[in-house]
Amino acid sequence: MTLDRHAPEAEIAKAVGAFSNWGRWGEHDVLGTLNFLDEAKRRQGAGLIRRGASFSLSQSFDMDGPQRGWRRRTNPVHTMLDTGVEASLGIQGFPHGLGGADDVIAMPLQCSTQWDGLGHIFDHGKAWNGRSAAEVVTSAGDQVTGIEHMAAQVAGRGVLLDVGRHLGEGGELPDGFAITEEHLRSTAAAQNVLVGRGDIVTVRTGQLARARREGWGEYAGGPAPGLSFTSAGWLHGTEIAAVATDTWGFEVRPNEFEHAFQPLHQVAIPHIGLLIGEMWDLDALAEDCVADGVYEFWLTAAPLPITGAVGSPVNPVAVK
């Protein structure tokens, strides 16, 4: 797939015409590509557990995270409501010496490891499955495809494509590296793993490892390796259920067109119906995959069932 880098509108329209899943699961669908992740796929994923080794694929949720305030995205603010101090002073009001601690957190739902829901991105005023964006997401939230519909769905066969190790230097791709279908296929072949219908695919670029070593810098919104716009056909044709990366924006930045912003999102979410994860921590899992040569595993990554949300924090857990 070649791109006219001066014509993002035309290229997006071309990809939409080729890869749209509108109507594929009926006019009332709210799951998109998660429809590919069926009971048989979950049984297959569960059968991959051999050793019982588990890996959290989540970054921390704290004030030391990567957010810089763009679009009012801030790092989480964690506040204690009751502590051991109050308990020790006996001012909590509980009988017979009982004490406790409570806390609260305030944060954007997409400030750290997270899923982009189907109501997160629109194309020319249209949301997933051809619905009017104005009728789907209002000030009351996503009235149709809220993330809560996916709460029981995201568990099955996970696959790691460690493109950073396969093609990068020192296990890391440079910022601006566009991962094409050829790159994804060659990585899968090198790792002797197949990618197909219903899989939850994780793509490691190595950018998170670099950010942890050198500081966050522009990790949230700045230059990054990521999927090329030309990978849209692979995302559609493989019939994967979801995809997640270790980067802030999933696709390569700067984007591959002049005067464009996240064009692959514009195809993948409202048209393909693809669940997209961002800022996943794949480093420890990748080290284990290198050690045992196995790049498939059971993966559970349920979003919080926040009614009407267009995204959700997540603590994905891979088990091998």
Helix-strand layout with pairing:
Blueprint lengths: L7 H12 L19 H8 L7 E3 L20 E6 L1 H6 L12 E5 L7 E3 L16 H4 E2 L2 E2 L12 E8 H5 L10 E2 L1 H11 L8 E5 L2 H8 L11 E2 L4 H6 L4 E4 L17 H10 L2 E4 L4 H10 L3 E5 L10 E3 L3 E3 L1
Parallel strand pairs: 7-9, 8-10, 9-11, 11-12
Antiparallel strand pairs: 1-15, 2-3, 4-12, 4-14, 5-6, 7-13, 13-15
Helix pairs in contact: 1-9
Protein name: Cyclase family protein
Organism: Streptomyces durocortorensis
Pfam families: Cyclase (PF04199)
Report the CATH superfamily of the largest domain: Putative cyclase
CATH-derived architecture of the largest domain: 3-Layer(bba) Sandwich
CATH fold annotation of the largest domain = Glucose Oxidase, domain 1
State the share of residues found in helices, binned by percent.
25-40%
Give the oligomer, counting copies of the same chain as homo and different chains as hetero: single chain
Average predicted confidence as pLDDT: 97
How many angstroms separate the termini? 36 Å
Structural class: alpha/beta
CATH class of the largest domain: Alpha Beta
Could you give the count of β-strands? 15
**Could you give the order of strands across the largest sheet?**
1-15-13-7-9-11-12-4-14
| Total helical segments | 10
Order of helices and strands: HHEEHEEHEEEHEHEHEHEHEHEEE
- Can you tell me the number of structural domains? 2
List segments where confidence is low: pLDDT < 50 over at least 5 consecutive residues. none
Protein name: Cyclase family protein
Organism: Streptomyces durocortorensis
Pfam family, one: Cyclase
